[in-house]
Design goal:
Blueprint (H helix, E strand, L loop, with lengths): L5 H13 L3 H19 L8 H18 L8 H29 L8 H8 L2 H9 L5 H11 L4 H8 L3 H16 L2 H7 L2
Helix pairs in contact: 1-2, 2-3, 3-4, 8-9
Length: about 190
C-alpha cells in the first residue's frame, strides 16, 4: 500500500490553481473553508466576523496566485501562516481605529464656548476662517466638519486614515488658536 503525501498533493493543486485550473481551486477552497471560517471567528471582541472571513478569503486567493513551489515550502504551511498573519493585522488595525475613536469622542454636553461658536452665522464663521492661514485641504476639512460630518466619514471621503484626520484636525485647531481674531470670535 502506497502512502499519499498530502503536502505535495496540496502543492500540486496550488500550482494548478495558480495557473487557472478551477477544479484545483475548488478542491483547495473546500479543504480550507472550515479553517478560514473558524479563524475568522477566533477573535470575539465585538468585531464583525463576516468582514474578517471575507478578507481571509481574498488573502487565500492571493496565496494561490503568489505560491511558488520552487521556494521549497509546502502550500499548506504557507497559506496557514499567511492567513494568521493577515488576521492579526486585520484586528490590529481595528484596535487602532477603536483606540482613536474612543480618544476623540465628542462630549455629550455643550460648554458656553460651543454655544457661542454655534451662535455665529455661517458667513461670520467663513470670514473668520479666511483670516486663518489654513491650506486648501485644511479649509475643506473644516467645511466638512462644520457641515456635520464625523471624523470617520471624513476619513472615508478623503481616502485617508482616521489617525491622519485626527492629526489634521489637531493642526487646524492649533493654527486657529494661534490667530488672535479667531480666539476673540470663538472663545470670548
Amino acid at each position: 500500500m502506497q502512502k499519499i503525501d498530502m503536502n505535495s498533493c496540496f502543492d500540486d493543486l496550488a500550482v494548478q490553481a495558480g495557473k487557472g485550473n478551477p477544479e484545483a481551486k475548488e478542491v483547495l477552497c473546500r479543504h480550507f473553508r472550515k479553517y478560514i471560517h473558524n479563524l475568522s471567528r477566533s477573535y470575539q471582541q465585538g468585531w464583525d466576523a463576516e468582514d474578517a472571513e471575507q478578507d481571509l478569503w481574498v488573502c487565500f486567493l492571493e496565496c494561490l496566485l503568489a505560491y511558488r513551489k520552487e521556494r521549497k515550502i509546502h502550500f499548506r504551511y504557507y497559506a496557514l501562516k499567511y492567513l494568521r498573519w493577515k488576521l492579526l493585522n486585520f484586528y490590529r488595525s481595528r484596535k487602532l481605529d477603536e483606540k482613536y475613536t474612543s480618544e476623540f469622542t465628542e462630549l455629550p454636553y455643550r460648554s458656553s464656548r460651543l454655544e457661542r461658536a454655534q451662535e455665529l452665522t455661517e458667513r461670520e464663521t467663513e470670514s473668520v476662517l479666511e483670516r486663518c492661514s489654513l491650506s486648501n485641504k485644511q479649509r475643506h476639512m473644516v467645511r466638512q466638519r462644520l457641515s456635520g460630518k464625523s471624523y470617520k466619514d471624513m476619513a472615508s471621503e478623503n481616502r485617508e486614515s482616521l489617525r491622519n484626520i485626527y492629526y489634521h484636525m489637531g493642526r487646524i485647531q492649533s493654527i486657529c488658536a494661534g490667530n488672535q481674531e479667531f480666539r476673540e470670535s470663538f472663545f470670548a
